[in-house]
Design a protein that fits this description.
The chain starts with a strand and ends with a strand. The strands form two sheets. Strands 2, 4, 5, 6, 9, 10 and 11 form a seven-stranded mixed sheet that branches. The protein contains no helices and eleven strands. It has 125 residues and is an all-beta fold.
Length: 125
């Protein structure tokens, strides 16, 4: 199993930037596909970004495309989410997710079986 811990959330003004980190335990981080999801109060969990084990495959949700960047450093057992041009509607709890090896649909939260506790991102207007 892998344990995931998110960090980097906080309060930022609209138009600003944040970088989230997801630190994973274990020796086989490079064997996990990784994703970022977010959930705002009263809304369903929303796909944000995902990256394959090698980093060769990357997906973004339509609402963040062109503003957010996902990356991974397998040597550091860490996946990152760089968030630029933040909007108030980006306010949510952001979750890191993982699945060993393959993912049939990177955009579906049900594809992942390991989750972090989440980190709060609040964007003020």
């Amino acid at each position: 199993q892998v344990q995931l811990v998110e960090s980097g959330g906080g309060l930022v003004q609209a138009g600003g930037s944040l970088r989230l980190s997801c630190a994973a335990s274990g020796r086989t981080f490079s064997n996990y596909s990784m994703g970022w999801f977010r959930q705002a109060p009263g809304k369903e969990r929303e796909f944000v970004a995902a990256v394959s084990t090698s980093g060769a495959i990357i997906y973004y949700g339509d609402s963040v495309k062109g503003r957010f960047t996902i990356s991974r450093d397998n040597a550091k057992n860490t996946v990152y989410l760089q968030m630029n041009s933040l909007k108030p509607e980006d306010t949510a709890v952001y979750y890191c997710a993982a699945r060993y090896y393959t993912v049939s649909n990177y955009l579906n939260s049900r594809s992942y079986n390991y989750w972090g506790q989440g980190t709060q991102v609040t964007v003020s207007s």
